[in-house]
Structures are given as C-alpha cells and as structure tokens.
Design brief:
about 200 residues; mainly alpha
C-alpha cells in the first residue's frame, strides 16, 4: 500500500508539471498571436500609406505630363501663327515690290521717251561738238541698258535709284547700298548726289 501511494503521488506530480508546461505554452502562444496581429496591423498601415503616396505621385506625374503637353501645343500654335504672319508679310512685300518695279519701269520708260523727245535738234546748225557733248551728258545722266555698274565697273547695271531714276548699280552693289543706307556716303545717288528713297531692280 505504501508503494501504491508513492506511485500515485509521483503521477500527480508529473501531471501537475505537464499542466504547468501546457499553461506556459498556451500563454506564449497567445503572446505570439497578439504580436502577429500587431505585425499584420502595421503591415496594413504601411500598405495604406504606400497606396496613398503612390496615388498622389501618379496624380502629380499626370498633372505635369498634361501641363507639358499643353505648353508644347501652345508653343507649336504660336510657331505656326508666327510662320503664317511672316509668310503673309513676305507675300505683301513681294507684291508691293512687283508693283513698285512695274510702276518705276513705266516711269523710266516715260522719262526716256521725254528725254529723247526733248533732245531732238530744233535747228540744222547744231555742231558736231555740241552733239557729242549732249550725248555724253545724257549717257552720264541715264546709263543705257547695256552699261556697266558705276561702282565695280564689271557687272551690268540692273538697279535704278528712286526717285532720280539713274540706272547705275549691279545687284551686289545695290545690296551694299541698301545695307549701308544710314551712311552719308551711301545715302545719295553716285551720279547726281541726290538722296534716294529706294533701289529697284529693272528687268529689260
């Protein structure tokens, strides 16, 4: 009987130890579950924050992209508008130049006709010397179509001064006169030293 009582006491102590271990394990398990729940909550918080930041970043990026697109469209529109204005202005200037050339060609023809009419001798006693002198003066005042440029003496004279009507410049020297028109040397006709307003190309 004493041995049975001893065995019963040992089993009671063993059972009591196992129960204590189970309780301790259960407590640790509950602690781990709470920790896991905290981690899952923190994970959801981080995901929400990341989602909000990503949405804000995407919205900002889309706004920048849209703003850039609008600016590019505005610049392209302004460029097209400017090009159209320049083209219209060039067409207008070209038209005015063509009209001016036509008017001055007619005027030059009229001046030549009037000059040739007024140079007809009224008497039969005109001497050869006076005829040569008048011819030389007329050639100096209004060079013929085949005359050379009075500046370079090489290229044909294709431009006239307005309003004096002297045809005495080639294309290159006419451009030089137009570029330096503010200079006193280039502001007058090289033949009669009269101030000019325009230099016009004459077509034969």
């Amino acid at each position: 009987e004493e041995e049975e009582e001893a065995e019963t006491g040992e089993r009671a102590l063993t059972d009591h130890g196992e129960v204590a271990e189970v309780k301790e394990f259960s407590a640790r398990l509950r602690q781990l579950n709470r920790h896991l729940s905290d981690l899952e909550y923190q994970k959801r918080q981080v995901e929400e924050i990341c989602s909000r930041h990503k949405a804000a970043f995407d919205a900002k990026r889309e706004a920048i992209r849209e703003s850039t697109r609008r600016k590019l469209e505005l610049v392209e529109h302004e460029e097209r508008t400017m090009m159209l204005r320049v083209q219209v202005e060039l067409d207008r200037i070209q038209t005015e130049m063509e009209r001016g050339v036509s008017r001055f060609s007619v005027l030059w023809s009229t001046i030549q006709q009037a000059s040739s009419t007024s140079s007809i001798p009224t008497t039969t006693q005109t001497t050869t010397a006076s005829t040569e002198s008048a011819t030389a003066q007329q050639d100096d005042a209004s060079p013929s179509t085949g005359s050379k440029c009075i500046i370079c003496l090489e290229q044909p004279a294709t431009h006239i001064f307005s309003p004096c009507g002297h045809r005495c410049l080639c294309s290159a020297d006419a451009e030089s006169y137009l570029l330096h028109r503010d200079s006193s040397e280039y502001a007058v006709c090289p033949i009669d030293r009269a101030p000019w307003k325009d230099i016009i190309r004459v077509f034969d």
